[in-house]
Amino acid sequence: MLRPTLLxxxxxxxxxxxxxxxxxxxxxxxxxxxxxxxxxxxSEQILEGQWTAVFFGFTYCPDFCPRALQALRAAEGELGxxxxxxxxxxxxxxxxxxxxxxxLKAYVENDAFPEGTIGLTGSPEQVQAAVKAYRxxxxxxxxxxxxxxxxxxxxxxxxxxGRFVRVLSSxxxxxxxxxxxxxxxxGRA
Length: 189
Hints:
Blueprint: H1 2-18, E1 33-36, E2 41-43, E3 51-57, H2 64-79, H3 81-84, E4 87-93, H4 101-108, E5 118-121, H5 124-133, E6 138-141, E7 148-151, E8 155-158, E9 164-168, H6 174-185
Parallel strand pairs: 3-4, 4-5
Antiparallel strand pairs: 1-2, 1-5, 3-8, 6-7, 8-9
Helix pairs in contact: 2-6
């Protein structure tokens, strides 16, 4: 007789645990002071006013960075012009030693990348503060002028208030990225 009551209590407690509120999302993003590809000082306020895809990389990156920018360009095509016009792309360099504003300008103006991509750089300290604010990762790898920079490959989707909404995976197709961006814009989890 006691067994069914204990089983019922265990099930009730289990359901109550399943209904506990989810923890708040991780804080991603925050204040930064950087310089854009035109040499103008900018802050996190550059993210305000429209949806933004933010990611960290460097102009000498042999694989992820150009591939991610090309995928974002293709995702914009999937979104269509009315929706794509609501999205800006911000590329934050994790290689401030080589990625000067001039180098970023030449890089982000590549026809294969989204039109209007904003390139940001700064002092090593400024770049590291931005990396930390986004909970990203960047570490110089190798010596000499041909060094690489190991870095995270997440693409952060920020809303028009500059708040983190979701992350895109670097292995998503442009169609999957477009669907994720569209869902974010529509307020879908």
